[in-house]
Amino acid sequence: MGIIELALKGAPKILKAGPKVLVPLGIGAAAAFAAAGKGVVDLAQGRGMRKDAAIRLEFALAECETVRLETETVTRSYGEFQITTHKENIGRFADWLEKNKALVKRLNFKKIDGVRIRVPNIPKYVAGAQSITAGVSGVVSAIGAGAAAPAAAIWGVSTFASAGTGTAIASLSGVAAQNATLAALGGGTLAAGGGGMAAGAAVLSLTAAVPVLLVGGFTMGIVGAKAKTKSRNFVASVAIEIERISLAQEMLRAVQARVQELRDLLQQLAERSTSALDALEQVDFDPDQHASEFLRAFQLVTAAKEILNTPVLDPDSGELTEASIEILRKYT
Amino acid sequence: MSAPKALAAMLPKPGPAMVVDTLNLVIASANKWVQVVAEEKTRREEIRVWEQSQLEIIHVQRDFLLTALDRTFDERRENFRRLFDNLDSALASDQEDAGARVSDLLSAITELAQTSPFKDLKSPALVVQEFLQSGKVIEL
Description:
The complex is a heterodimer of chains A (332) and B (140).
Chain A: H1 3-15, H2 19-99, H3 101-105, E1 111-112, E2 115-116, H4 122-130, H5 132-135, H6 137-147, H7 158-161, H8 165-203, H9 209-282, H10 291-308, H11 319-331
Antiparallel strand pairs in A: 1-2
Chain B: H1 3-10, H2 16-92, H3 98-114, H4 124-134
Helix pairs in contact in B: 2-3, 2-4
């Protein structure tokens, strides 16, 4: 016969104790059950809150990743447009220069339409135009910006986004660690209960089970309350991260707007440059007669080249990154 | 000796001291429960306030940045439009200084393009200013 059976065997004797004993015991047991019940409810609520928060975070990170990929597509498309424009304007002008270099040299330092012409070093210009990377550093910069565009990191989402969803998962495993802590705490509870059990077994009566229940119930209540707070803290942290992720998305959209701005400018200059090159190529070039046509084409091609060399984001100054981090450092 | 009797013999007999200890344990547990529940409730309220203030700050930053970026891009778009209109006039002009005007306008266009639209966002003071003007209060 075990302790429990022994205790159950002794149970009917408790009834003989009368209401003076049974009423306090009943109240005590009810209080213990209430405290334990509250603890269990808190634990369940906390678990649910964390689960919902984790889902919201994953959703926000997925959305941010979509915008990041969009930005990369926009930037890559601009890079392709840059290469085409480079070929159709700078490359085309370089070809023309090479064919007419002897005649063009005669224009060097002449003043035409109020502008002193400085003919570039033609072999160098041609060589530069042939090499897209050497000739147009902006192409590389633009694509680089696309690759560097995970502006999730820009807006202090680094805690989550620096390693993408992996870090988020790491945070979640932090919660798992919390659970482990809680589990450990729960073990403590059991240990305390264990002590109670020993006391219960010592008196070999169900009367002793009431203090055991009380201690266990209160401990369960404590565990539940603490778990609920930790869950609330996690939910709050996630809510803040989600807002930051949303802010990062806005910054990525701003990067897209900047790319679009440069693309529009390049297109406008390329259209005018193409017209000027058409006009230049249509004439049988004579430096005395067609200096104005040369000047127009040279000016517009040079301006288009400037735009091609303009990076989307300046990787040296770090502009957006610096501004964003500064703001976050100060206020969060 | 039967098994139950042997078991009962192994267990200590409950005395007054044990009853007092048990009572103390129960009272201590109850006190602890009441105390922890109250503390955790306060802590949750603190977390709620902290969360609210952090969200408020981020909202202010977002409002400021989006407004600033919208204005910056609008202003730049308008400036580029005006510069290109003038450029087209200069390109079509027969005047003696047409080339110089074209040169100036192209310089203005490329300079504006090279100026980052994000450069004005560097000052966090502007965020504060914007925030103060909004009349909102951050609870810290």
